[in-house]
Amino acid sequence: MRIQYCSDLHLEFPHNKSWLAEYPLMPTAETLIIAGDTHYLGPEYAKLDFFKWASDNYKRTFVISGNHEYYGGYDLSLHQKPFKWEIQRNVFLLNNHVEIIEDISFLFSTFWSHIYPENEKFVSSGVNDFYKIMINQRRLTVDDFNKLHNEAYTFIRENLKPLNDKTVVVTHHLPTPLCNSPEFEGSPINNAFVVDTTDFITKSDIDYWIYGHIHRNIGNGTMLGDTTMVCNQLGYVHMNEHYNFSRDSFIEIA
């Protein structure tokens, strides 16, 4: 089974929307996975031309929310529980949800990350999530962030246990610093982007882990035990982050 994947399309920005209209994805699989940061959530989200295009060009498309989905005012509390939302007849937005297709188990989760106490001040003052994301009609806090991570991590661990199939995990946030860009090394706000679950992944039976979030296609093909780490992030076109984006990246699971 072929699975095409990408993330961080950021279609809320005109430059990204125009670029992807001129250089659309080149379908290489029946299944498309988008690992977060597609567009702000809201009344127009399901009506995006891109989702209509995906519906016409893929048998099925699975999308997870990144952090930016909630920058437009959509209250994150509406997505705290596991869900699967039909955007188009064959396009779905999911979180903390398992989908099984042809004996392949897909675990979908935004995942968030975990912020250490020593970095709370830097992260809460230096990361836009804590200014732009609302939860229960108030601003997101570090405690909220960590709670979301714990719920997501529990979901992944508990749902891996009964699986004997091939397994693909899809998250927005990075699950290991080994796939982070060296330029961010030592930054006190790294906790908002990456969480170190390296040992867990290395000991797992996960076949592939698809991630996004940092707008740097670092770590593609990295092996953690038997798990292959892959990403394909568009990033901000107006900041020239798109040059390493692939319009046709896919994995194949026999």
Strand content: 15-25%
Number of helices: 6
Q: What pattern of helices and strands is seen along the backbone?
A: EHEHEEEEEHHEEHEHEEEE
Give the % helix.
Answer: 10-25%
Query: Largest sheet, order of strands side by side?
Result: 4-5-3-2-1-14
Mean of residue pLDDT values: 96
Give the key terms.
single chain; 254 residues; Purple Acid Phosphatase, chain A, domain 2; 6-stranded mixed beta sheet; 6 helices
Describe the protein in words.
This protein has 254 residues and is α/β, with parallel strands linked by helices. The chain has a single domain (2-252), classed as Purple Acid Phosphatase, chain A, domain 2 (4-Layer Sandwich). 21% of the residues lie in helices and 24% in strands. It has six helices and 14 strands. The protein has helices spanning 14-22, 49-57, 120-126, 129-132, 142-160, 198-202, and strands spanning 2-6, 31-35, 60-64, 83-88, 91-95, 97-101, 104-109, 134-135, 138-139, 166-171, 208-211, 222-224, 227-231, 250-252. Strands 4-5-3-2-1-14 form a six-stranded mixed sheet. Strand 2 (31-35), helix 2 and strand 3 form a beta-alpha-beta unit. The longest helix has 19 residues, at 142-160. The model has no long low-confidence stretch (mean pLDDT 96). InterPro entries: Calcineurin-like_PHP, Metallo-depent_PP-like. It comes from Flagellimonas taeanensis. This is Calcineurin-like phosphoesterase. One of its GO terms (molecular function) is hydrolase activity. Residues 1-216 form the Calcineurin-like phosphoesterase domain.
